[in-house]
């Protein structure tokens, strides 16, 4: 998107008034005010607390220093062996050193960066669009699910902080093109490297800047040399730290590739057909009206945004659509910019140009309306999740004892494992309640209490009739059914093969006080770092209703190379 040099072909007083308002310095406060409004609506019943991966990341922040996170390959692969995102850990380390384990202060840092990211996004857009178009881009982006979710999960803040630095790199490079000053290009390269260290989705930026519809190719190349140098540094750094390329080992089918546009739009705007239609129509209008250089840039932008998330898009996690959501915001900003200038293709008559401009404004309005409807529908469910997660987590962190088991919890095992470690190692308390994901955990227990969150009382209470549930579960067990497991580990990859059943659900369980349950396909491989020998158990749930399990098996993988094979019967 390119700012038109032509004057408005028609006078719209409201549009002119809006333009003058947006040009005021007070405009930078509008995104922040909107964030506060969303916060008040969403979370009027509680303060921010930990979610998801937060406790595990806090554990890393306590145990490792900045040098380990950035420069110690062996230590880094203990944190993760699948991706190179040291900034994700460094942010927790920084806040832990400053604030301890106070979630309020972590969120204060997080929302400050969110605000700065939106202001910077506005500044980047205003280099190409009218102020009204730039504001529309920010507003539409703010209404998308990836932005809303990234604002409420600390574990995703390396996405938004990475976005801040990649937008900074874009803006600094634009300043280089305006002034020709080499310091701007070097500053852009440094900002870009920080964004790449935050998340891999920002790595392809230098390729995108090659096709920026600004200046000539020859004028852009000298400023891109520092960025491509940073790109080379990043890949070498990544290879050394991960002892390879990393990745999750996931694959994408042909059918998933064809479904990708619809899947991404569903992640951005929820199940709103009107939103999908509006975005496709805006894209169609863009490719009808835009200049050739803009069209080429848009095509490259689509590839640059989508390619880094292809290996994981099958998981359909909302956070992976953050950059596509930003693109939807930019597309909306371009349409509002065209609406405010009232320009057609330059070849159409005045009446047709007005009609086209009005249709662009209507499409953006429709997009905003659909996103708002989706956001309002998203509030109650997330508010309920927030409160339940906070109550469960707080009880495990500082209440109860080792006889308590918590049933029906909303977070994954890694959340409670991390809280349990913080309870004993940071707060100095005795071992506390354990999450109950698997009734197998209770088969070896003689004295236990099963607790759960009560939806009406909004607190943790004993579960009535759980003994009857255990009796029903025992009737589904068949410990004579065929089952097999093969594990091989050559650092940093673990490979597995389960059998003999082709359907049903396999779950690999790492035994311990806080067991780790990992649902897995029948075969596969994944980068993982083992610091010590582990005990594992394979559980299988048939589509016909019965359940079976292997015994607890010792996997001696501490040395970095191990094999495990066990089998019982045949199907």
Q: What can you see in these coordinates?
A:
- The structure is a single chain.
- With 571 residues, the protein is of the alpha+beta class.
- Helix content is 56%, strand content 12%.
- Strands 7, 8, 10, 11 and 12 form a 5-stranded antiparallel β-sheet that branches. A 4-stranded mixed β-sheet has the order 2-1-3-4.
- A hairpin with a 5-residue loop joins strand 7 and strand 8 (516-520).
- The longest helix has 49 residues, at 350-398.
- Residues 1-25, 42-46 and 343-349 have low confidence and may be disordered.
How does the overall form come out from the CA principal axes? globular
Strand content: 5-15%
Fraction in helix: 55-70%
Mean pLDDT: 82
Q: Whole-number radius of gyration?
A: 26 Å
What structural class should be given to the helix and strand makeup?
Answer: alpha+beta
Number of helices: 21
- Biggest sheet architecture: 5 strands, antiparallel
Report, as a whole number of angstroms, the end-to-end distance: 61 Å
Low-confidence stretches: 1-25, 42-46, 343-349
Number of strands: 13
